[in-house]
TrEMBL record, chains A, B, C, D:
The keyword Zinc applies. PANTHER family: NADP-DEPENDENT ISOPROPANOL DEHYDROGENASE, ZINC-TYPE ALCOHOL DEHYDROGENASE-LIKE. This is NADP-dependent alcohol dehydrogenase. CDD domains: NADP_ADH. It comes from Entamoeba histolytica. It comes from the Eukaryota. One of its GO terms (molecular function) is zinc ion binding.
C-alpha cells in the first residue's frame, strides 16, 4: 500500500452492470482501520443489488460484504489492533454508541438496517483495500487454527443463518422447520441444531443442499416438489405442526406457510431478504384471529466483534465445520468477478464460492 | 339451587337471535365447581358471536364470559374452595396439565384458543348457574375490599388489555401507542402505564373514552378523524416513531399502521379479535424487507386463578380503579339482556355496562 | 397385578437401613395411574436419603425416583393413556394447577421442591407397582425407538443436567465451565453443548468420566488435583474467565469458585443438591461488591410429560446418546438393591447402573 | 472557560480528608465533551470513598458523579451535541464498543464496574469543569420542562433504584419487598411501582422516608425496630412470603433475610454497594438446598444516554416526581462541600441535598 493513493475494486456501475474501477483509498478516521482482503465471498444479495436493483440504483459502488482480511492501517484511537493483524470482518459493522445499539439492536444503529454499511452506504470489500468503522469494536482477530476461507463464512452466512434460529427462540427438544436451504438456510439448520432442536425439517430440493442439511442436523427433508409443504409437515407430525419455524428462503408468501404449519404458542424467525411484493400476508384464521401467540420475528443479523468471536469459537472447537458450504474455490482478487457470476448463475452444485488472496508479506506485515 | 335440576339463561338461539332458555344444570366433575353469578358484564365479542356469527353457528348456547360469582357446588377433589365462597371467574379457564399449558401457553390448552370455553365450547355465564373446570386452579377468591362489579372487569377487560401491554414488551420509559380505546384499549393504556411507559399515545375519537384514557396514563390523544394516524405519530415524535405499539382495536389493516409508526428493534402486541379479512398485511418495505426486528405478537389473554389474583391486587392496593370503565349499571339477572343490547347498539357514552345480581342468602350460603 | 392387594418394594427402614417390605398397593385416583417398572436406576440422592438422612428420618418409605414403566391401571378421568402403555416417568411430577405451576415453576407446586414426590412425600419407584399423580400431564409415552434403559436416564439425569445448562443461560459460542462430572454433570456438559456452547471446561478427575465428558462436548478437562481450579481456568482463558458456569457437583464452597472464575455480566446455574453446611458463601469482592451482574441461579429440574417428550426427541433423532452413562446393567427388580449399593460404594468405573425388569405379558398387556 | 487552563474542584486528598484543589483542565478527545455543572448532588458512595476508603486510597481525586451540566467544549467527532447544550450526565458512562457492552453489560465495559469512571478512575463532577467520554452516547439533552435539580436525581438515584426493580424481575401484580429506603431505596419503591407491583413492603424506620415511600407506591411499612423483618413479612403474607425482593440497603447479611422472606420461583435484585464483609451468606436450607429457584441478582446501574432519556420521560410526563427526594438545597459550586458533609452526617430529615450552580451566560452560551 505504501505510496498508493488509489485502489482497484469490482463495482456496481449501475443497475445490471458491473466492472472494475479505480478509486481513491478511503480516509482512516481515528477509530477506523483499512484492511486488505485475504478471503472474499460473494452473496446472493450482491446479485440482488446489481441485477434486481434491490437497494436502488448505485453508481461505481464497490460490491461485497463478506471478508477476512489483514489490517494495513489503524486510526490513532484504535487500541486492540495493529497493522498486520488478520481479522474476521462482519458484514454488519454497527456504530456502537447509537440509540439503537444501546437498546440492544446494533444492526439498526443510526436507522433501520443502518449497521449494514458495506456495499450499501459505502464501498464494499471486493477491493484492494476497504474501510472498517469502529475497528476495535467490529473486527475480530482471526484465530490461528481457522483458515481465512472457512472464517469468511462467519461474516454473513453463519451469523445470519444462526440468527434465524435465535429469532425463532428455539428451545431444547423443539421440533423445527427451516424453510430454504441455500447457504444461509443450511446455517439456520446448523443453528437450530446448536440451540438444541430435536427433529428438524429442512425444506429444499437441490440434492447437494439436502445432503449437507442432513449433515448439519436436519432429520427430515421436505421437498416442495412433492406437494404442499404445509400438508407434508402436518402429516409428518400427526397434525400437530412444528414448535418453531425459521424462514431462510422463499418470498413474502412463505410466512403464510409458516403460520399454517406451526403450533399456537410459537415463534417464526425470518432472515430472508424480501426483495419483492407490497405486503407479507399473515392468514387471519390460522393466526388465531389475532390471538394465537404465533410470534413473528424478522431481523438483520447482529454484527460486530463479539458475535464473530463467539461463532468462531464453534469452528475452533470443531463443533461447526463451515467448509462444507464451500463448493467452489478461486485464487486472486480478480477472480471475485467469476465467483460473483457463479452466484448469479447458480449452477446446481453451487452452495458458496470463496476467493483466496495471497500476499508476499502476509506473514511479515506489521 | 336445592332441588332444582334446570336453570334459566340468556342464549344465542342461532346467528342473529337471542332468547332466554331453560337448560339442565351441568354436571359437576371431581375438579369442578358450579357457580351462580353476583356480577356479569357483556363483551363486544358476545355481540360478534351472535350477530356476526364470528365463531360459527351455535344453537341454544348460553352467552357470556365475564363474571364474579358465588360457589354453589364443588367437586370431590376441590381443596381450596367451598360452597359460599365468592370468586372472580376468568374468561379463560385453561386445562392446566395440557401440553400447551406446560409450554407456558395455558390459553391454548388443548388447541389454539382452547382455554376460552365459556360461550364458545360450552355454556357461558349469563345463567342462573354455570360450570367451571379445574376450580382450584381457575377461580380466585374475591378480596373483601373489592366490589363484585369492579372485580368483573378483571375477567376479561383488565387481563386482556394488560396482556396487550405485556405482548408489546414495554420497558421503563418507552414511548407507546395504543390503537383503540374501548374498554380493552383503555386497559391497555393502563397496562402500559403500569409497566413503566413514559409517553403514551392513545388513538381514539369518542370524547368520554379519550378523557378516561388520560386518567389511565395516556399523555397524548390521537384522533384518526384529524388525519392519518401514522403521520400524526411521526410528526409528534420528530419522525422517530414509537418504541412499542399495542393494538386493541381496528381491523386487519391496523397492523400496517403499527409497522409504519414503530422504530426498528421494537414490538407490536395485538389483543384485538380480528373478525374479518383473509389476511393481515405487513408492509414489506417498512418491515425492513424482513429484517427490521419489528416483532409482531398477538395473543389471547392468560386466564386462571393466579392471573386474577395478581391483577386484583392492583385494585386492592388502590393502584387501579376499574370503576371508571363502568358507565351503565343494572340490577337482576334478567337485565343482562338490556346490557347486551347496549353493547350491540353502542351509544356514545358507553364504555362498559355491568349487571349486579343479589341473593337473600348471599352472606349466609355455605 | 390381578387380585393382588400388596406389593413388594425396596425401602428405607430408617436412617442408615434399607430392606424389602410389603405394602398395600396405592389407591388410584381419577387423574392418576399405577405403573410397574420396566427400567429403574438408583440416584446419589437415594443414598443421601438413606445414609445421610438428608431429608430427615423416614420409616418404611420405598426408595427410587428414576423409572420407565408400564401402566397397569388408570383413573377414570385419564384420557391420553391406557393400560399397557409404556411410559417415561419423570422424577418430578408436579401438580399442574397449583399457584407455583401457573407462575412457571411446576417443580415447586404446593411449596418449595413440592413437585418432588417419589421417595420424598410418598413411596418411590423401587417397587412392584407405583403411583403417579396427574398421569396425563406427567407421563410421556416411551417412543418405540428408545430402549427403556436408555430412557430411564431422562427421568432425572438428563433433565437435571440439562437444567443446569438452562439455568446458566448459555448462548451461542459461550465459554462454559461445568463443575462436577458425575452423571448429572456429564449431562450438563451435553446440555451446554446442545445449547450452543463453544469451549467447555469440565472439572473432574475420574478418568472414565473425563473421557465421556469429551465425547459429550467438553473441550478441556480441568483436574482439581492439579491445583486450584480457578487459577487453572483463568490461566486457560488469558485471565478473562468464562461466560457461564454450571455447578453439578462440589458443595457449598463451590459457588465461591464459580464467582471467581466468571466474567461480570454472566450466569451461574446450580443443580447440585447441597446436603450440608449452613450457608453458601458468595465472595463480596469478586461478586463486584454486589454490583457485578454475576447472576446466581439454582433450581430443581422441571418434570412432567412435555419436558420428557422434548428430551426424548434428542435421543430419537440420534443427537443424544444416554447409553454412554450406563456402566453397570442388572436384570430383575430384586437387583435394584445391588444397584443401589453400587451408588453407595462408588467404584472408580461407575457412572450409572440400570436395572431392567421383564414381564411375560410386557407386549400383550392391555 | 476562555483562556483558563486550570479548574477548581472538591477532592479527596487521601482517606478521611477532603479539600478544594486546582487542577489542569482535562483534554477533550475527538469523541468527548467538557461540561460545567448546573446541578450537583453528593452520594453516600462519595462519603464511603473518602471516609471508609471503600475503593482504596486516592490522592487529589475530584469527587462526585451526579450532575446536570452545560457543554463548554466538544471533540471533533461529536455530532449530536454542541457548546451550550444542557445535558443530563449519568454516573455511569460506558465505553460502548467494548466486549461487555456488546454482550449487554455496558456498565462493566473494560472490566467489572468499568463504566463507573467519575471519582473512581478519573476526576469526578464536583469541579468547575469535567470530562465526559463518548459524549454523543453518554449525554442526554436536558428536556426544557425539567429543572436541573430534579434531573440530577436521574444520574444515579433513579437509575440505580429502578435497576433494583429491574433486576428483581418484577411482573404485574407482584408482591414486593424493598429493603432500605434511603434515596436509592425510595427509587426502588417507585421503580417497583412503575413496573406493575401490587403490594409493596418498604423496610425502613425514619419517619420522613416512610412517608415518602408511601407516596412512591409502598403499601406497607415494615420497621425493623418492631422485630425481625422476615417474621413481619411472613405474618403479613399469611406465611407465603413475597414474590420479589429489592435490596437497596443493609449489608452482606441482608441477603439471608431476603432469601427467607421470598417464595420459591422468585428473584432478588441488589443495588446496594456492599462495603464490608468477606462473604454474602445465602442460607442453604431456605435456598432450597440449592434448588429453590430463588434467583440472586446484583448489578451496577446501566448508564448512558438512552437510559437517561427513558427515565427523563417519566418526569416530563408527570409520572415521576423526583423533587420529593430533595430535602436540602444549596446555591453555588462551593456549597457542594456543605452538601457532602450533610451526606456524611445524615441528619434525620435528610434524603438528598442538591446544589444549583448559575452562570451569567447560561442561556447564551454557544
Amino acid at each position: 500500500m505504501e505510496g498508493k493513493t488509489t485502489m482497484k475494486g469490482l463495482a456496481m456501475l449501475g443497475i445490471g452492470r458491473i466492472g472494475w474501477i479505480e478509486k481513491k483509498i478511503p480516509e482512516c478516521g481515528p477509530l477506523d482501520a483499512l484492511v486488505r482482503p485475504l478471503a472474499l465471498a460473494p452473496c446472493t444479495s450482491d446479485t440482488h443489488t446489481v441485477w434486481a436493483g434491490a437497494i436502488g440504483d448505485r453508481h461505481d459502488m464497490i460490491l461485497g460484504h463478506e471478508a477476512v482480511g489483514q489490517i494495513v492501517k489503524v486510526g490513532s484511537l484504535v487500541k486492540r489492533l495493529k497493522v498486520g493483524d488478520k481479522v474476521i470482518v462482519p458484514a454488519i459493522t454497527p456504530d456502537w454508541g447509537e440509540e439503537e445499539s444501546q437498546r440492544g439492536y446494533p444492526m439498526h444503529s443510526g436507522g433501520m438496517l443502518g449497521g449494514w454499511k458495506f456495499s450499501n452506504f459505502k464501498d464494499g470489500v471486493f477491493s484492494e483495500v476497504f474501510h472498517v468503522n469502529e475497528a476495535d469494536a467490529n473486527l475480530a482477530l482471526l484465530p490461528r487454527d481457522i483458515k481465512p476461507e472457512d472464517a469468511v463464512m462467519l461474516s454473513d452466512m453463519v451469523t445470519t443463518g444462526f440468527h434465524g434460529a435465535e429469532l425463532a427462540n428455539i428451545k431444547l427438544g423443539d421440533t423445527v422447520c427451516v424453510i430454504g436451504i441455500g447457504p444461509v438456510g443450511l446455517m439456520s439448520v446448523a443453528g437450530a441444531n446448536h440451540l438444541g432442536a430435536g427433529r428438524i425439517f429442512a425444506v429444499g430440493s437441490r440434492k447437494h443442499c439436502c445432503d449437507i442439511a442432513l449433515e448439519y442436523g436436519a432429520t427430515d427433508i421436505i421437498n416442495y416438489k412433492n406437494g404442499d409443504i404445509v400438508e407434508q409437515i402436518l402429516k409428518a407430525t400427526d397434525g400437530k405442526g412444528v414448535d418453531k419455524v425459521v424462514i431462510a428462503g422463499g418470498d413474502v408468501h412463505t410466512f403464510a406457510q409458516a403460520v399454517k404449519m406451526i403450533k399456537p404458542g410459537s415463534d417464526i424467525g425470518n432472515v430472508n431478504y424480501l426483495g419483492e411484493g407490497d405486503n407479507i400476508d399473515i392468514p387471519r384464521s390460522e393466526w388465531g384471529v389475532g390471538m394465537g401467540h404465533k410470534h413473528i420475528h424478522g431481523g438483520l443479523t447482529p454484527g460486530g466483534r463479539v458475535k464473530m468471536e463467539k461463532l468462531a469459537s464453534l469452528i475452533s472447537t470443531g463443533k461447526l465445520d463451515t467448509s462444507k458450504l464451500i463448493t467452489h474455490r478461486f485464487e486472486g482478487l480478480e477472480k471475485v468477478e467469476d465467483a460473483l457470476m457463479l452466484m448469479k448463475n447458480k449452477p446446481a452444485d453451487l452452495i458458496k464460492p470463496v476467493v483466496r488472496i495471497h500476499y508476499d508479506d502476509e506473514d511479515t506485515l506489521h
